[in-house]
Design a protein that fits this description.
Blueprint lengths: L1 E4 H6 L1 H8 L4 E5 L3 E5 L10 H5 L3 H20 L4
Parallel strand pairs: 1-2
Antiparallel strand pairs: 2-3
């Protein structure tokens, strides 16, 4: 991990982008702002929301079922 100033980053952008492929670069701007430059990992990792996701077909079946229940509750079995 390296710590640099924002002016150093501006002066040597390519150098620090190349370094960020393998390590985090901490950029300090002024006395109270800090940023992190790091390569974004483009591999998608399944998270809990993705594991619980349903397909479009499953969604449509559920919606149709709910609409039928609501219709029956209001109008009875006159479908």
């Amino acid at each position: 991990m390296r710590v640099i100033s924002s002016s150093e980053l501006r002066s040597n952008m390519k150098k620090y982008l190349d370094l960020a492929a393998n390590e985090k670069i901490i950029i300090q701007r002024g006395g109270n702002e800090t940023f992190v430059l790091a390569r974004e990992d483009d591999r998608l990792e399944p998270d809990e929301d993705l594991r619980r996701a349903i397909s479009a077909k499953e969604l449509l079946i559920g919606v149709e079922t709910d609409i039928r229940k609501a219709y029956r509750a209001k109008y009875g079995d006159k479908i």
